[in-house]
């Protein structure tokens, strides 16, 4: 869709099943948003706020999540392979069985995050 939703406010929204291909969400407020089944190919979420968002099972591979806030976000079974999570805040996020292979976690905050079964092979 290539939409530019920079600084958008979609808090408490249901986007389930939407096609967000190649869209830009810089510094958008996506708190408590439901993204289940959303196509996120080529999406940029730099500085976006996903506090308490439902991101279960989503494919964030190669996504730019630099400085994103994912506090209390549910990332169960999410694919974050090669995602850029530099300076991301994942405080108390649920990363159960998430794939973080080759993910860039430089200066990311992961305090009290649930990481049971998460694959962090070659993540840094």
What distinguishing features does this structure have?
124 residues, little secondary structure
Could you walk me through the main structural features you see in this protein, from its secondary elements to its overall organization?
The chain is largely without helices or strands. 0% of the residues lie in helices and 0% in strands. It contains no helices and no strands. The chain is globular. The termini are far apart. The mean pLDDT is 94.
Secondary-structure content class: little secondary structure
- Beta-strand content bin: under 5%
Binned, the helix content reads: under 10%
**Helical region count?**
0
Mean pLDDT across the residues is 94
- Main sheet, how many strands, which sense, barrel? none
Uncertain regions: pLDDT < 50 for 5+ in a row?
A: none
Termini Cα gap? 32 Å
Tertiary shape: globular
Q: In total, how many beta strands?
A: 0
Rg is 13 Å
Write the layout of secondary structure elements.
Layout: no helix or strand
Q: What's this model, at a glance?
A:
This protein has 124 residues and is low in regular secondary structure.
């Amino acid at each position: 869709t290539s939409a530019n939703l920079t600084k958008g406010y979609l808090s408490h929204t249901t986007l389930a099943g939407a096609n967000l291909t190649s869209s830009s969400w810089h510094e958008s407020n996506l708190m408590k948003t439901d993204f289940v089944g959303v196509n996120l190919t080529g999406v940029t979420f730099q500085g976006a706020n996903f506090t308490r968002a439902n991101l279960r099972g989503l494919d964030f591979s190669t996504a730019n999540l630099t400085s994103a806030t994912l506090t209390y976000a549910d990332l169960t079974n999410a694919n974050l392979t090669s995602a850029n999570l530099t300076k991301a805040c994942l405080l108390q996020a649920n990363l159960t069985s998430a794939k973080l292979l080759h993910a860039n976690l430089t200066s990311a905050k992961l305090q009290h995050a649930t990481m049971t079964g998460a694959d962090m092979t070659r993540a840094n």
